[in-house]
Amino acid sequence: MRATFTETSRDGQARTGVVTTARGEFTTPRFMPVGTRGAIRHLASDDVDALGAQVILANTYHLMLRPGAEVIAHLGGIHGFAAWDGHFLTDSGGYQIFSLGPDVDDDGATFTSTYDGSTHLLTPERAVAVQALIGADIQMVLDVCPSSVADRGIVAEAVRRTSVWAARGRRAFLDHPDAAARQSQFGIVQGGTDDALRRESADRLVELDFDGYAVGGLSVGEDRTEMLHGLDSCMGMLPADRPRYFMGLGDPVGIVESVARGVDMFDCVLPTRLARHGTILTDEGRFNLRRAEFAKSDEPLDPSWPESPAARWSKGYLRHLLQTREPTAARIITLHNVAWLLRLMDRMGDAIRAGRFESLRVGVHEVWGS
Question: How many independent structural domains does the chain possess?
């Protein structure tokens, strides 16, 4: 089923909206916590409900290898498997595969499993079929994600091959009865930070009439100025009546700047990865709880936010759990960090509706740096 996007308010280029899929609706701007293997690290499905996370990103590469897409389909698809009724989005697996240095040609990518050394070929058609078995509400087309330091020739070849694969993936999706009836499919714009290549990629993808469009290959090591330059070069070409998704972005300044340019959806491991290492996201910036100064602190993690799911515990107590490697620490801090980032998205939506997005944007820069 084609995903639809309905804009509900606008302030400059920043917008709020509703994405409708075969499963139902979710609102934007929207951050999607990453549940790599079908779960957000340290959290259970009822935690996700309590946090109000309307969409989770699951990782096709890992799930196709363990437990296998067929097993997930047998156990009710990703929603039955994970016992969660909200929206799931699955990436194509391309980013993880290309980080392994696969053998790539126009047919597809041949790679070695990180789990058991077995060899696999992922083609655009196979990516569609695997994600159809997994059963997420939104699936991503297979793309080529080059290194952030690749020369222009490599990036140009990645754009060409991404376009070829996108056409094949779109045909396979529309011809797949389960996928076309139950899922939506997004294309992925590549091109590094090269204006012309970004525009070429966007132009070729828009011709294929995807249900939504993602910006890939940014926030992969380049500085923020380069990242936003790459985003600016293609945003105006992406249809306003489709969801727009920036892949792999989780820092507050990057998110607020992308929302200012009309992006609707984001995902990143940032809040959960930081939590496992004791780094806390707050309205005053971030800090590491392992510092000795917090050993006797009776303050909550973010005194300005009494509604935090971690508000009942003191910094001193949570630091003790971190220092003793008690897994409960990672769970509590993960709850806080994910909730804080979801709250930031809600605050952006409120600011857009009230016509004061620029004020919030300035405030995020003041706290989180320019």
Answer: 2
How many beta carbons lie within 10 A of that of residue 187, not counting itself?
Answer: 30
State the catalytic residue, choosing from 47, 137, 267, 302: 267
One DSSP character per residue, 5-39 reads EEEEEEETTEEEEEEE-SS-EEEESEEEEEETTSS
- Identify whether 232 is a catalytic site residue: no
Cis geometry, peptide bond prior to residue 67 (ω within 30 degrees of 0): yes
> How far is Cα 272 from Cα 282, in angstroms, rounded to an integer?
14
Is residue 91 part of the annotated active site? The answer reads yes
Rounded distance, CA 3 to CA 206, Å? 15
What is the rounded distance in angstroms from the CA atom of residue 332 to the CA atom of residue 340? 12
Does residue 367 form part of some domain? Answer: no
Last residue of a domain, one of 265, 284, 317: 265
Same domain, 318 and 240: no
For 292, the domain range is 275-359
Stated as kind and residue range, the H or E segment containing 336 is helix 327-354
Set 47, 91, 143, 194: catalytic member = 91
CATH code for the domain of 22: 3.20.20.105
Q: In the sheet where 109-112 sits, what is the strand order?
A: 103-104, 109-112, 119-122
Determine phi and psi for 34, rounding to 5 degrees: -90, 120
> How far is residue 233's CA from residue 191's CA, in Å, rounded to a whole number?
10
| 304-360 pLDDT, tens digit each | 999 999 999 999 999 999 999 999 999 999 999 999 999 999 999 999 999 999 999
Same domain, 287 and 253: no
- pLDDT digit string, tens, across residues 16-72: 999 999 999 999 999 999 999 999 999 999 999 999 999 999 999 999 999 999 999
Do 206 and 70 share a domain, yes or no?
A: yes
Distances (CA, A) of 318 to 43, 48, 285, 293, 299: 17, 21, 18, 13, 11
Q: Same domain, yes or no, for 312 and 181?
A: no
Residue 231 lies in a domain: yes
Boundary of a domain, candidates 197, 232, 265: 265
Within-domain flag for 364 = no
